[in-house]
Design a protein that fits this description.
Layout (H helix, E strand, L loop, with lengths): L1 H4 L19 H24 L5 H10 L12 H41 L1 H12 L9 H12 L9 H9 L13 H8 L15
Helix pairs in contact: 2-3, 2-4, 4-5
Keywords: Coiled coil
Organism: Parnassius apollo
Protein name: (apollo) hypothetical protein
Length: 204
């Protein structure tokens, strides 16, 4: 209380100064580069289509600054196409870098959450997998679709290698059939947490 009354400034060292979910500065810079590159691509395409307004021409000159390319040379259209392709490749590379970071960050956070609070992790995954409020699939169409895949006879090409494999495996004793009883299932899930119940698809 006394320190606050005399107006002394308290040190904030060691305190959290920002959220962990803040966007990194390098990612913001890359997004700005992507936006500028897309704008430049649009103006280069306009110039290639015959738009010779001063603003467009000035942008095209800036795009070729530091090179020996002149707007009056005969192969300028080819140079424009090459420049546009180069910018598109740069945008693809920048976008891939952002996607790699996003995937890595997501995996890291999920692994850390799995070690600290599995229940919260599974709930977050369930929220991401919730389907929209669209119409339910038609049962007759679904049955006809899968029946067309599994019930229709298909003539497969039987290669000679299959006969070789079958002859090599003829001496192998087949495994005894595994019969799973309700008591086996009950014993397997007896120690499982109740919040790990199957979802709408019936799978855990």
């Amino acid at each position: 209380m006394a320190v606050c009354r005399i107006g002394a400034k308290l040190s904030t060292a060691g305190r959290a100064t920002g959220q962990s979910s803040a966007i990194p500065a390098w990612r913001i810079r890359i997004k700005e580069r992507i936006a500028k590159a897309r704008t430049l691509i649009g103006r280069l395409i306009c110039f290639r289509s015959g738009n010779n307004r001063p603003r467009i021409v000035r942008t095209v000159r800036m795009a070729f600054a530091g090179t020996n390319v002149s707007l009056s040379q005969p192969d300028i259209m080819q140079k424009l196409t090459e420049r546009i392709d180069d910018l598109k490749q740069r945008i693809a590379a920048w976008g891939k870098r952002i996607r790699r970071y996003t995937e890595r960050s997501t995996w890291f956070n999920q692994n850390r959450l799995f070690q600290s609070d599995q229940k919260r992790l599974y709930k977050s995954l369930e929220r991401q997998m919730v389907s929209g409020a669209g119409p339910a699939p038609n049962q007759a169409y679904t049955v006809a679709f899968w029946r067309g895949l599994w019930s229709e006879p298909i003539n497969h090409s039987e290669g000679p290698w299959k006969e070789v494999v079958a002859s090599q495996c003829a001496s192998i004793t087949p495994m005894d059939p595994v019969i799973i009883m309700p008591d086996d299932v009950a014993e397997a899930v007896r120690r499982a947490p109740n919040w790990k119940s199957p979802g709408l698809d019936g799978l855990q």
